[in-house]
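G., the chain you wanted modeled:
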Amino acid sequence: MTTATLPVIHADRVLCTPDECFARLPDFPYEPRYLQIGGLRIATIDEGPRDASPILLMHGEPTWSFLYRKMIPPLLAAGHRVIAPDLVGFGRSDKPSHPADYSYRHHVWWMNAWLEAMDLRDITLFCQDWGSLIGLRMLTANPDRFARAVLSNGGLPTGAGRSVPPAFKIWRAFARWSPWLPIGRIVATGCVSPLSAEEIAAYNAPFPTRRHRVAARMFPRFVPAEPDNPEREANEAAWRILESWQKPFLTLFSTRDPITRGGERLFQARVPGAAHQPHKRIRGAGHFVQEDKPLELVEHINRFMAQR
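Predicted structure as tokens:
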């Protein structure tokens, strides 16, 4: 998929969250850089030495790069180039306001075009939640660009095999049918550690109106949870590449996530690069492990990246 063939989103259906919504973000001083991809601006935090090997931090649903504010400083202190994009529809990236403009496939296309435009190499991927559904598709579409991968509280479902956890079914129904979608409070329920009022407000910041929240409502129904999902074949093809992936692959799953707990075993069994890696279970962390145990994650990531 090239930029020339990316889905065309009509300009009158694209929203930009006003900058003033992000004026009082706690512990997040980073200025975004923007790339135009298919007529949409994708915002990216890009910090650290230009000549250092990058670590790509992929957020999920319904968060944005603010999720990584506790991990960015120690990763920078270790000398890494740290890159954290906001997915289309989230954070400071543009937000199509029409549901038909969103799909799992469109997001993979947008982010692969973004990756090509950034021209990143020797990447360490860290992905969680929807960051893994998109990030692992990016890796398998561009395997030569990636040196290693770290997966936390995520997966690459195909709709076959493992049944959908009840917690996910509840979340999917709530996102679709609830008349209100309090993003910050939803993130807070996925954490063991409490979030402050300022942190909850920061998660709400990208979504000042109902029209800005379309992506957050749509994402749960895109997960290939049933065999007839339109992205089942593409994810199965991605799995075939993962099943021949010899580069290092690390899992860091938390013990208190009702949706993904235990999902690491599938990757440890099927990805050759996961053999003999120092996989860890992160205790005392919920779904958003980046909030609950950021320094522990960074410690494992730094050690993993130091392996050659």
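Residues 3-306 form a domain with the Rossmann fold fold (CATH 3.40.50.1820).

Shout if anything looks off.
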